[in-house]
């Protein structure tokens, strides 16, 4: 009788599930047909009577002026150079500026001049992907928010080719299966990584893993479960992409393990404005009365400025007075908001505590020319971020002619501070002692030996030029245009 009861419940449940699945498939197919119909109504033929190929980039913060935006404008310029019958579209949430102002800003910040006009589709629901909207379950909240933002984008313009250039992987199945587009993406860093999983698993306290979670085994288990679920979903949506471009070997390893789509994944290094820094003349240091150590990065928690200050304090402490020239540490970076400004104040307090205030200078939101001057005068370029996915700042320091000392992880370790033609290009360190010792070692080298390292580093950064990016980008996106 128990078996009969189970069958009487199970069979209708299975039948109902089947009907619901069929209804869902029919509904999605109907939406796809409706979107295709809408596409025909929205697009018109070009001057030659042919309908231009619409290539859309999903970049809600296209006016931000960071490394990700440099990739966007270089990619658009590259496609305009190569394909004549292409119209580039940018989905953006920057509604406080006009399209002309965005293009002008790209030229002013990056010296990138586009060949043809770009069509901008302004989105109203960008607030759905703001991290501040989701104090808890931020990853999931932002990802679901991006689906709604993507839906708004799809309704406003249906492209032939869709490229997510900002890391919103959850929009990929939307454009592929409902929009009927060929889809590609450029991944600057994975939304979730195996490193993040290990941080929670090992109950490490970090800027993205609060102490109240690490101190509670139950909370840690729950967060780990949530991360595994999210990683599974992220892998599912990412594998929908026809073309996957990643910015470094570090990102490649993570994307391969999460998305498992090796056949269509390739490394396309981001275009760094190396030429501007290579224009700085490289000569043997003349002044030995003062050495400057320069750090260039935004004042964000993951950049780990306290490590730089502590290592510098240790270096000063161990330096025997009167035997070496004076040292100064110059921290150059951008402050985006109130939190960043508070962070700078905390760093200044740390300098006071360690007694190094007179040797540390903060330069915030400085003009480009001043940045170039500081780099031209610097002996050491300093970088301390753990698992930086690429490290444009590291490339710029090397191109400018400093001896780089970067964190022994991520992009700097795997792609940038690597031997070039068998010669050393810089140094790597991991902790306070490492950094202090390596800085002391670099300063103990003869000016001739330092010049040799600087020249090797300069030669090595041509791999990250605009021209190299154009070649590898075109090679990667070619399947989308076939």
Q: So how many helices?
A: 18
> What structural class do helix, strand and pairing data support?
alpha/beta
Strands, count: 13
Distance between the termini: 61 Å
Uncertain runs are: none
Estimate what percentage of residues fall within beta strands. Answer: 5-15%
Taking strands numbered 1, 2, ... along the chain, how are they ordered across the largest sheet? 3-2-1-4-5-6-7
Helix content: 40-55%
Query: What characteristic shape results from the CA principal axes?
Result: globular
Largest sheet: 7 strands, parallel
Rg result = 25 Å
Rounded mean pLDDT is 88
Account of the protein in words:
This protein is α/β, with parallel strands linked by helices. It has 18 helices and 13 strands. It has helices spanning 2-42, 67-82, 99-110, 138-156, 172-178, 194-201, 211-214, 217-238, 249-259, 274-278, 305-318, 338-354, 368-377, 392-400, 410-416, 432-444, 447-460, 466-477; strands spanning 53-58, 86-92, 119-122, 161-164, 182-187, 243-246, 265-267, 290-296, 326-333, 360-364, 380-382, 403-407, 427-429. It has a 7-stranded parallel β-sheet, with helices on both faces. A 6-stranded parallel β-sheet has the order 10-9-8-11-12-13, with helices on both faces. The longest helix is centred in the first third of the chain and has 41 residues, at 2-42.
Secondary structure layout:
Layout: H1 2-42, E1 53-58, H2 67-82, E2 86-92, H3 99-110, E3 119-122, H4 138-156, E4 161-164, H5 172-178, E5 182-187, H6 194-201, H7 211-214, H8 217-238, E6 243-246, H9 249-259, E7 265-267, H10 274-278, E8 290-296, H11 305-318, E9 326-333, H12 338-354, E10 360-364, H13 368-377, E11 380-382, H14 392-400, E12 403-407, H15 410-416, E13 427-429, H16 432-444, H17 447-460, H18 466-477
Parallel strand pairs: 1-2, 1-4, 2-3, 4-5, 5-6, 6-7, 8-9, 8-11, 9-10, 11-12, 12-13
Helix pairs in contact: 2-18, 6-8, 11-12, 11-16
